[in-house]
Amino acid sequence: MNARNKGAESPTIQNETPSTSDMLRQCGSKCKRFISEGHDFLRCHSCQMLFHLTCTTFDQEVYSVIKAKQRFDDISWKCQGCRNAPQQPNINDLMGMIASLQERIQTLERNPKHIVQQPSAIQPNVRSESKVLQGNQITHQVILAAETGNPMTQQSFADKVKDNLRSIPIKNIIVTKDGSGIINFPNKTSRDDAFSNLKNSFNVKINNRPQRTILPKVTILDVDSTEYKNKDSEKLKEAICEKNPTLKALVDQGKTFEILFIKEDNRKINLSFAVAKVSKEIFKEIRLLNYQLYIDFQRCRVSNRVHVTQCYQCQKFGHTKTNCKSDVQVCRFCSGNHISKSCPGKGNIDSYKCANCDSNHSTTYYKCPVLQSQTQLLINRTQGMEEISKNDLHPHVIVT
User: Where does residue 179 rank: exposed (0-12), middle (13-18), buried (19+ CB within 10 A)?
Assistant: First the structure.
């Protein structure tokens, strides 16, 4: 049986239907929805609270198999909170420890020479492995080298390698701006199997380098522009914390919540939007709040913000015009060597040509495969994004 939880103990699912009293009880997880007839749920053997199956770490397949086997009915299952609760020591063990300490104290009192001043331990001035890896994530990648004169697209890359990777799970594939192909795998085993299948046919290598991660950003929409200007970042932060206690608790713990800027929304009267950089814990809390925050006398929507940097000099990604090393001006509409705003074909979609993929669209078109690859690269590097499914991401993503 494949469970989604890692290293979890074997559960016992209580094969029962919710009683009338159960149906009036809320789920013990953060979802707080009521248990209704027809819901698959588990009862914690310790605290007796009910949990929707979807709020636990087990999938439907495991649940169905265990539910069908009545012989598992006597196995107990504990929720995450009860499993993490500290275990109460046995009273006999405590009494034995107390007696041993008292005997030791009496011995030292009778003979003080036995008391030895222990030197304080000197901690080596090195960073632990956990500190070194903080802000990084381990990547499981195979990189396919670019072919001279034959640039790959997302689709051609997929067609090229699919026969060698039919039975291997893949997270995603990405084509970089230099024409290389990157395949991301969920674990080391999948990566190694893929490398073995590809190495005889393609110029491939394994990427063992930890990837530097970044904190997620969110856009807070419909902020009252008469009350909050760009200079009022701290004021807005305080207002958000005041009306959202769960988020304030995380801020009080030192979790990052920084309002980067506030800007008026030209499409709406007396409304602005604010962009904030947050820790992955606060990012998760915003998701649990259904992408909504209370500010003063209103409820404001929140969106994930993925900011892909694009140069308006050469139209490539990863740098701005100020830092561009190219002296050639490239038009974002027709790929010609002129300024975009003076393009003669501006507005005539049939004359558009992307400078990055040669397709019939502008370089800023959101469906451009190169722009989508860059967006996916940024999402992969953003902390907390790995927990978001595609269905959850797209309705709440703003790419700028």
Answer: middle
